[in-house]
Design brief:
Strand content: under 5%
Largest sheet: none
Order of helices and strands: HHHH
Radius of gyration: 15 Å
Number of strands: 0
Distance between the termini: 34 Å
Mean pLDDT: 84
Helix content: over 70%
Low-confidence stretches: none
């Protein structure tokens, strides 16, 4: 199973290749991935609101419920960027 750093790093490497026509080494990609994940460590108010609402709807019965809440919170974070850009 790949780690979240490896997963994010792989996506960063693909984006770099697509946008700039170049690629990063795994070490560089993982460094940027760690920085991105660390930046997400503290959720925004919008993410907390969405997570709280999803928690009440799912009643956190199992691991799938936790995954669903996490995905709702990340979706909320991505939508925040859409409002700015």
């Amino acid at each position: 199973m790949e780690s979240m750093v490896e997963r994010v790093g792989a996506e960063l490497r693909k984006e770099c290749l697509e946008v700039f026509g170049a690629t990063w080494s795994n070490d560089v990609a993982w460094r940027f991935a760690r920085a991105a994940i660390e930046a997400m460590r503290v959720p925004t108010n919008g993410m907390v609101d969405v997570g709280t609402e999803a928690r009440w709807q799912s009643a956190i019965r199992d691991a799938d419920s936790v995954r669903e809440i996490w995905q709702h919170m990340i979706d909320a974070a991505l939508k925040e960027q859409e409002k700015v850009g």
